[in-house]
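Purpose: get a first structural picture of the assembly so the mutagenesis plan has something to point at.
Setup: two entries, given in the order below. No constraints added.
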Amino acid sequence: MASKDGILLRGAPFEDPAAVSSRDASAYRPLHTFELPKGSEKHYAHQFADMYFVRLAQLKEAVKQKAHEAWDAFELAGDKAKYVERVLDVRQGELCWVIGTVYMEMAMKPNVLDDISKEHWIAAPPLRETYVSSSGTDDMMLEDESGRLRVAGNSLNSHYVTGCILAALGTEQADGSFQVIATQYADLPRQPQRWEAEDASLTVAKQSAPKREKAGKLALVSGLDMTGKEEDDVTLDLLVEYLTGEAGGADQSSASSIARLVIAGNSLSNASPILSRDDFDVRKGAKRNYGYDSSSYNATPAEKFDAFLAEILPALPVSVLPGETDPANVALPQQPLHPALFPLSRAYAEPLAISNESLEGLDLVTNPWEADVEGWRILGTAGQTLDDLLKYVNGVRPLDAMEMMLRWRCIAPTAPDTLWCYPFQDDDPLILNECPHIYFAGNREKFQAKSVKGPAGQQVLIVGVPKFSKTGQVVLVDMETLEVETVKLGYVKPGL
Amino acid sequence: MAEERYREYLADRVLAEGQPITYRLLSRALKVHVNIAKQMLYEFHVEQTTKQPKSVHATYLLTGRERSSEHSNDDNAHNGDDTAMRSSPFMSSLPEPENTPESPVPTTSIVLVREEELEKTKSEFEDITSIHVYSLEPGPIENMNLLAVCNQEIASNYASGDPLERWRVYGSIQNPYIKRRTTKYAPVVAKPATKATVKSTAAVSAAKEGTKQAPAVAAHKESTPEESKSGRSTPQPGPAASLKRLDSKTKAKKDTSVGNLFKSFAKAKPKAKEAEKPKDEDEAMQGMSEDEGDADDEPAVKFDEQKAAAARKAREEREQKLQEMMEADVDMPDAPTGEKTSQDAPIDKETPSQPVETEETVTVQGGRRRGRRRVMKKKKVQDEDGYLVTKEEAVWESFSEDEPEPKKAKPTPKSTAAKGKKTGGKGQGSIASFFKKA
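Result (structure tokens, whole complex):
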């Protein structure tokens, strides 16, 4: 049933173990797309409206082109559809198409003004699972620089979210709403070739491309949710032992083909020293404490995470994305976790003063994160963008939502409306300029993966990385064939 | 040499002390390849169970493919009620991607299982690529997470040495590309101390092969953090703070975990105390702490009363034993028995559980000392089993005092702590009342 050397159920004499396998090399080129300017260069006083303008301006051409292709020959009852530059120029009864940003007016959607009035409320409204109201009174608008147009159409609401750029074909009705027949979006942007950037820099340097070895695997994990309690310790231990190739028998060497581990957010289950509003009230009511209150911050989870990384790092380079519950800034793009959190494992990272990239060792990156690994373009998030988007729609599978984000060319369409975000001014890195080969989102309920194709032959592997604390799963992506497999770690509950 | 020692080590660890041991901890303790450690565990398990069934309990690690009945990729399992985004009529211009049922993603399962459930779990596997003993413990364990104690032990006791060289000994995967900076402020916990004890225990056990006592020492490393703490008095200026914090941290963690174990295997307790002793000695011999003289510098270690009593009893026993030992092997050059007891004394005397000051930052301003200091406080918590667990926690508290009395403050930690708190309250109260008026 099983191969001989996998079964280590044998005793003395102890054979000398096979030679230790060494780790495959990891070709890695960080892109720093989502890094914010440092220190005083960071301005939070800007208006968020600019983000929408930038987004519309950048994506308008692409959407227009798609719409032209689709609708130039379109005729309805002898009327030819024509393009209208501004949404306010739409004339009643005229078949036309316009381009604008979607805005969803939803009763259940959190409102900034609520935040202010919350101060006067007795109880704050609870966090919503979804923004879709049950009564079906949600409205969809299309807006551009000139104004807004109310959009009507069959079940439009369940397919679009605030912030995506759209071309809509239809006619304005007597009540002023725009009856939509069809829509178009920008679709996947250009996809770089594998090794494109590396080859380009080699050509500049007048060198011939090196012979590249067969690439290893990329391990994706998210939601370690370290609590500092001793609940999931064994599963985490197993993860360490699996990745360092100590657990198992004959399959130890298979772990050596993993060339990089990516931790996609939520490594700590609750690291925020900032109290929630309720907790804060409770504490304020209690005894007054001046100065630092040691009971408000528990360092154990962070120390455990540090020790966890320090165990893995001698054997494997690790990239760590911050997530919703990690001690990083909350607004997207989240900046790398600070090395001060990792007194043990930061020895494997380049010191910040010298370089902000560690090609091998501990690599603290942003969320979202974009990089070239083994020549492939990889884009990943810790999952907040997807979570927020899914609140706008009903019954949409997460993988499809991820696909739509790529096709809309917007990684975080709902930012800054319902997702906290840095107020970008002139350029929005959350707009997708180049199509990735692998797009993953962390902290999913379960593992999912699919491959989608674009109009120009782009092919993207979309992966939903499950929460490790719930499923015990690690996702492995073969970086040669882009095939996916999973490794499940766990234990049989005693007594079952 | 590891081949001969493993039996004793395991017998002491599992049978005598009733502690679980994983293959990983065994490989660290004996410095052998992990795969050999797995085989040692198996060999030992077979030996013991043939001698006496049920004397040792094993957990196994299974690797393989589970039967596909519940493949994790139930992606297309519930398509029924979901509206796929792309099926909307508005995207008709798109080439509708065919809804291909995706081939199930290959899943490898790595499962930790007790020997009771082994056969059943095996039958659920389609294909087993490897199986080995993961850990041995004296009896069936109810909570697998108890095994995590072993890895914590590795982290605290075997952290010494270059991690990049580990693969040579233990056989983990080597990454030839990774570099490690050696930082000036390496916050590694009490490296020299642990190393010393490991080495010395090895030496001791080599010297007194057969006496059964020696490997117990090796096994009982829990006590090392405490030891190293009391051994290392505080004069290092900069990194001391972080070091100490880590120390107390690991200790607190350890306390709870070990406490759990002790509860389940209560008889192991006196032995633990016993085992601690010879190690003390080793440290003294190594001359780890030159300035042990000024006792007021030393962060006092507290035990609870129970422990203290046990320790006192154990000390007497130990003295006796030492006597014997001294007579037995003459080649142990300098075991300073008398001095040892005197060193132990202050620790035992300070056992009452008042907060003990460990460290402070003080500013003297206008005749008043203000600052914050770390204080060890006891906290009783009821755990999920209904046991009362006493934890020590380091707590920062601010204080301000009237007189800068540096000498007096130290020897009577209790009174200063109390006073500090009280006066602190008063001093700040005045500020508060000032604001109230305003």
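The two ends of chain A are 25 Å apart (CA to CA).
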